[in-house]
Specification:
The chain is an alpha/beta fold. Helices cover 37% and strands 15% of the residues. The strands form four sheets. A seven-stranded mixed β-sheet has the order 1-9-8-5-4-2-3, with helices on both faces. The active site is at 180 (proton acceptor).
């Protein structure tokens, strides 16, 4: 089965991990700090806090923003559940705003209708690797005193109008899962334009530990002393994982180029296929393509999915609208709330896309898709 996504591991990646295993640190050490520095530089020069997953990064960001009971988070439904569940875990209510039907990105007009005095965070997802329209989303958040959050699990290394992902929203989260644009095995990071938010996120992911003597409430202890002022969790990344991440960062531009080449080949070879809509494009975006999401028209998505799988092509569907999950249905969310997202889901099919995919592999996918649509 040709997978829809897969990690690309080089000898240099393996050597970096082996070197870390032979070093003095396995868990939180100098390689974690170096990885955070590199991610921060890539993301516009802001502080990055690494963590154990993209889900953890979202939880950290919401916690740093002070999200809690009584607050609302406006979120796209066209995403993995973690974009919303981190806010729900902290007691907030999630309000889903519909998407642009061509790109799958959150629609600022829908956000404008959804924000209000209880809105704490507006969460966009850079679906498939294209940045959302933060130029319109940020003023909407500012008007109600909310923060913007870019779930950039798909888009590290991308830019919008020349600005890097990480500098487009108040908070940005990344995922380093194996199918993403770079990997640490499992892992993620959050980037913050406000250093105070970054410090809150750091302490939250480090069990709540405060190590700054100027903030201690107990001042008569010894040099070993540390305190917990707010409860946190252990989301710390390891030096071993960071070694892989640092090596992968050296390859990110090459990954981006190869992904763009694959997308261009799909575009060319699928342009004339009836019953198929190709991915829409965001003006001003220089994406890092994580997905190639076609839309299968005329109600044939399930049929085509089954035929592609039977042909050994590991297509995927990204994503079921978040509020369709039973956990959100049980909270009172109902189908029909975001018709564009539901129509997009009914048609969406992600074709294989990863850096080690060969041109022959792409042609095999295209031939199978043409046959499935006959």
């Amino acid at each position: 089965m040709l997978p829809y996504g897969r990690q690309s591991i080089s000898d240099a990646d393996i050597d970096a991990v082996v070197a870390a295993l032979r070093g003095d640190w396995l868990t939180t050490g100098p390689l974690v700090a170096e990885l955070e520095q590199r991610i921060g530089e890539l993301a516009g020069g802001h502080r990055a806090v690494s963590c154990t997953s993209g889900t953890a990064a979202l939880h950290m960001a919401y916690a740093a923003a002070g999200v809690g009971p009584g607050d609302e988070v406006v979120c796209t439904p066209m995403t993995f559940v973690a974009s919303a569940s981190g806010a729900s875990l902290l007691g907030a209510s999630v309000v889903f705003a519909d998407i642009d039907p061509e790109t799958g990105l959150i629609d600022p007009d829908a956000v404008a209708a959804a924000v209000g005095e209880r809105t704490k965070v507006v969460t966009a997802v850079d679906y498939a690797g294209q940045p959302a329209d933060y130029g319109r989303l940020q003023p909407l958040a500012n008007e109600v005193g909310a923060l913007t959050l870019a779930d950039a699990a798909h888009s590290i290394g991308a830019t919008l109008d020349g600005r890097p992902v990480g500098d487009l929203a108040d908070m940005t989260t990344f995922s380093f899962f194996p199918t993403k644009n770079l990997t640490t095995g499992e892992g993620g990071a959050a980037v913050f334009r406000d250093p105070a938010l970054a410090q809150r996120a750091h302490e939250f992911h480090f069990i709540g530990l405060v190590r700054d003597p100027a903030r201690f409430r107990m001042t008569d202890e010894g040099p070993w002393h540390q305190e917990v002022h707010e409860l946190g969790v252990n989301y710390r990344l390891t030096d071993v994982a960071s070694a892989l991440g640092l090596s992968q960062l050296n390859r990110l531009e090459a990954f981006k180029r190869r992904r763009a080449e694959i997308v261009a080949r799909y575009d060319e070879r699928l342009a004339d296929v009836p019953g198929l809509a190709l991915p829409g494009r965001r003006p001003g975006a220089d994406p890092v393509w994580h997905l190639y999401p076609v839309r299968v028209l005329e109600g044939r998505r399930r049929e085509v999915y089954d035929r592609m799988r039977a042909a050994g092509i590991g297509v995927q569907v990204n994503y079921i609208p978040v509020y369709w999950h039973p956990v959100y249905a049980d909270l009172g969310h109902r189908r029909g709330a975001c018709p564009n997202a539901e129509a997009f889901y009914a048609q969406e099919l992600s074709l294989p896309l990863f850096p080690d995919l060969t041109d022959d592999d792409v042609d095999r996918v295209v031939d199978a898709l043409r046959a499935a649509l006959r």
